[in-house]
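User: These chains co-purify. Model them together.
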Amino acid sequence: KAGVTQTPRYLIKTRGQQVTLSCSPISGHRSVSWYQQTPGQGLQFLFEYFSETQRNKGNFPGRFSGRQFSNSRSEMNVSTLELGDSALYLCASSLLARPGRSTNEKLFFGSGTQLSVL
Amino acid sequence: AQTVTQSQPEMSVQEAETVTLSCTYDTSESDYYLFWYKQPPSRQMILVIRQEAYKQQNATENRFSVNFQKAAKSFSLKISDSQLGDAAMYFCAYRSKGKLIFGQGTELSVKP
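Assistant: Joint model of the two components:
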């Protein structure tokens, strides 16, 4: 069974550009969430999607957006890139989901997309 | 707001020895879950162990166990018989309403 796949693995952009990152969850998983990891801020929650609907959102500006498709694949978009957006972006999927509720279900993470903004 | 604190940025352990990583959290919620994740150089986050807050019994997974002290809001990870492959960044995480809140991480090195 294939794991969570994130593409691309590495990305270099310049300030002001926009970028789209892709995440394919494990087959059968309907919940996808995104995290940003930086040396300074650590791991921070971006959003959670379930059945094509955003169920939860972290404290990020509107330049960060996402969506989920009917096959559960998800994309996140960052517009008007800033130097501070340089980070590892991690996607995680899970099988069972009680959207918006606490749960101990196992999250499976991808290897991330390393975004560098120059 | 919930917070997770890992006070040890780095830890070191001799191969085959035991090491304990500390984690404290702050919350006013009663329904939550706690996790330890491992992030090796490959960057992929791997679940090590999880604990339901309503369970008194400490979780155990092979060489990994936790000491969950709910009143003290403490959730430490003990790694027994440390192996070279245990070297990684370890993150403590609190799950609330669908999102994980992570600590800053502890980098564990294992000496042969």
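The radius of gyration of chain B is 13 Å.
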